[in-house]
Write a sequence for this structure.
């Protein structure tokens, strides 16, 4: 699911906060044994709370504390990979929180200005620090419980008028059986329905989709003649729109 952001607020606190960092899928961010940042199922043994540590200017360290007290920090590694590493002194280990605490938000890496996210929702999926923030898999939320209630993603939207991603060129529907039925009407009825559909004062229908059925192999090399009409009558066949296998489409 793609998303469009609607209002960006910044949340802040003065001290470490221990939370489950939940992915929009309900999975939990954590540290794999090799240090890789991944998402785990809430029931996984690797699922632990992470600490969000403020460092000023709206940025945070995402801290993983091991059983012996050793700390590692979620860090951009290379152009997109994300690992928990020992060094917290670079911008690659800093993240800003775009959004607010009661909704889903995005985590923006200070080094490259990109967001944390995944390519999949499965447990064990890698977390990357190079996302554009325009997909549900780039969204997160905090929870005090492994299976805490998930906020509604649609509450976190930011409209950017200058950011154009699609263009609506018109509307239409498939010309399938209903259009074939209308084609059997007399000319007056056909003219009337075409006017209703296509007139700017009518429905202004302006995109027509015509289905070219696969039909038979024109040379019937791998099937019997008229096999598609067997048991149904030849009117059930679809034209192939080629007179031979090497001919152009008509």
């Amino acid at each position: 699911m793609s998303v469009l952001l609607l209002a960006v607020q910044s949340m802040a606190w003065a001290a470490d906060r221990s939370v489950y960092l939940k992915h929009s899928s309900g999975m939990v961010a954590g540290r794999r044994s090799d240090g890789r940042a991944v998402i785990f199922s809430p029931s996984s043994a690797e699922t632990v709370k992470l600490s969000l540590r403020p460092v000023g200017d709206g940025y945070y360290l995402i801290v993983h504390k091991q059983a012996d007290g050793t700390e590692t920090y979620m860090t951009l590694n290379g152009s997109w990979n994300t690992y928990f590493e020992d060094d917290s002194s670079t911008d690659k280990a800093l993240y800003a929180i775009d959004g607010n605490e009661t909704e889903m938000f995005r985590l923006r890496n200070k080094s490259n200005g990109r967001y944390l996210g995944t390519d999949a929702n499965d447990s064990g999926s890698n977390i990357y620090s190079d996302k554009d923030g325009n997909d549900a898999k780039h969204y997160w939320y905090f929870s005090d419980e492994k299976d805490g209630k998930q906020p509604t993603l649609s509450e976190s939207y930011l409209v950017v008028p200058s950011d154009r991603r699609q263009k609506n060129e018109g509307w239409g529907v498939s010309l399938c059986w209903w259009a074939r039925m209308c084609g059997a009407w007399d000319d007056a009825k056909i003219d009337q329905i075409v006017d209703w559909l296509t007139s700017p004062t009518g429905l202004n229908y302006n995109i027509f989709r015509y289905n070219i059925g696969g039909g038979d192999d024109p040379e019937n090399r791998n099937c019997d003649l008229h096999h598609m009409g067997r048991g149904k009558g030849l009117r059930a066949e679809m034209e192939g729109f080629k007179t031979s296998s090497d001919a152009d489409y008509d």
Observations:
- The CA atoms of residues 113 and 180 lie 54 Å apart.
